[in-house]
Amino acid sequence: MKIAMLARNANLYSHRRLKEAAEARGHTLDILNTLRCTVHIASHRPQVFYNGSPIQDYDAVIPRIGASITNYGLAILRQFEMAGIWSLNESVAIGRSRDKLRSLQILAKHGLGLPLTAYANDPKAAEEIIRAVKGPPVVIKLIEGTQGIGVVLAETMSSAKSVIEAFRGANVNILVQEFIKEAGGTDIRALVVGGKVVAAMKRTGAADEFRSNLHRGGSAQVIKITPEERSTAVRAAKRMGLNVCGVDMLRSNHGPVIMEVNSSPGLEGIESATGKDIAGQIIDFIVANAKGGTTKTKGRG
Predict the structure, then answer these.
(1) How far apart are CA 169 and CA 171, in angstroms?
(2) 201 - beta bridge partners?
(3) How many CB atoms lie within 10 A of CB 195?
(4) Which CATH number among 3.40.50.460, 3.40.190.10, 3.30.1490.20, 1.10.274.10 corresponds to the domain 117-179?
(5) Is the pLDDT assigned to residue 250 strictly greater than 80?
(6) pTM of the predicted structure, to 2 decimals
(7) Among 153, 197, 233, 243, which is 20 to 30 Å from 55 by CA?
């Protein structure tokens, strides 16, 4: 099988591991810099070009699109899909996951556990939305942030209002969420592949850090998740339309609550914590499921 990966940095651990896993199974995996891809749009002949040459003969594509180039990356991925190349995660599903507000709306619609969340455009409504999520304290997030960037814990009413007003004054869209104190600065990352949780880890934030992201100095250890947490992760992946994703959850007093569904989860932390060959399981899923022309963007919330 011939596989393409859309990724800007071929040297990242996750990308190297996927390439190694594919080649160990006798497949070819080419890592294509997303920004060097271009699309040529013509009736009945959708094409992607890479470094000026047309791309063809790939059986599947693995989208590892950075958050900073989401729109461009999704445009390229859509062209792959239009050409009938099977995508590990489809463009519509990735677009849902990258918009925190839309993803929370979808998950809430289907009854999945979430922290209380509020969204408003008017900075004058700051106090109203803070109280709506039973704060302070509250967590304030950029709608399109990633890896803990653009996430602020505001512990008083005055500080929360100041942060909200500052973000909105800069015309930046934010969400305000309740602070799950009982989580104690830890969260759970469940890795879902093909509708099954294949690995899970507990992430703990660095000292004096409420965010548990490994990129921000957090640590990880293997964890046995509960049946409810496993079901929550699987249902979240299904509702988002993602074949592979990381579902981040907190343990609250009223059960697991989903913080985020990540369509391009990193593999280093979870492979190191669990000792599992996650990259190999992803490649095996691609081989078992990739069939030319079967990509269908579902498009429904």
Answers:
(1) 5
(2) 189, 222
(3) 12
(4) 3.30.1490.20
(5) yes
(6) 0.87
(7) 243
